[in-house]
Write a structure and sequence with these properties.
alpha+beta; 200 residues; 4 strands; four-stranded antiparallel β-sheet
Length: 200
């Protein structure tokens, strides 16, 4: 009887030790997020953005094979999260998409939408889910309205005659920068019309 007790407590010790080691291992890993390589990005927060308060978009890591069962991610820690909180539903965002044949393509089967009833804020839920090892990132569902977009129209009297700019959607660049007087422009082409309004 004494040997069984020692073995039982020894097994519990090993399991707990293994759990704490794996937690430490995952905790020390720094996740690379899609915007980490983009300089000067202002990240969205609960204070500077509008978002759906009971929904979170979840992107699984490439190593996770998503579940085919509705209501499950196919990742043990995430499925435990679903059981722990008042989760209404878990569904693929792109349900008819297949995994890409080339690894360089984005795998849309890894994107899920999680809806929950819990009073927790979507930013908090996304932060907790993002810390799980099976998740690449999680974020709230942001709300973008049409009036958020700036009017990006260049002050060019001859703009309507420049059909090629519409073709390449050049006016969207005007939303990013509308010019800088410190930039020097060098014309390397011939036949410059010096009296053109753009060059004045």
């Amino acid at each position: 009887m004494r040997i069984k007790q020692v073995m039982f407590f020894g097994m519990i010790f090993l399991v707990l030790n293994n759990l704490s080691f794996s937690r430490e291992k995952y905790h020390l890993q720094k996740k690379t997020l899609p915007l980490d390589r983009v300089p000067n990005v202002a990240m969205k927060t609960s204070h500077n953005s509008r978002y759906v308060h009971n929904q979170v978009i979840v992107k699984l890591n490439s190593s996770v094979i998503p579940s085919q069962v509705r209501g499950k991610f196919g990742a043990p820690a995430l499925d435990e999260f679903v059981r722990r909180y008042s989760v209404q539903s878990v569904a693929r965002i792109f349900p008819h998409h297949k995994s890409p044949s080339a690894q360089s393509n984005v795998d849309l089967t890894k994107f899920f939408i999680l809806k929950f009833n819990s009073p927790m804020d979507a930013f908090k839920v996304a932060e907790e889910i993002s810390n799980l090892p099976e998740v690449q990132y999680a974020e709230p569902v942001f709300i973008h309205s049409i009036d958020d977009m700036a009017t990006c129209t260049p002050l060019d009297s001859l703009r309507s005659q420049q059909w090629a700019l519409n073709k390449i959607q050049a006016d969207t660049a005007w939303c990013i920068s509308d010019g800088d007087t410190s930039v020097i422009i060098g014309i390397v082409d011939t036949g410059v019309q010096w009296d053109h309004p753009d060059l004045q």
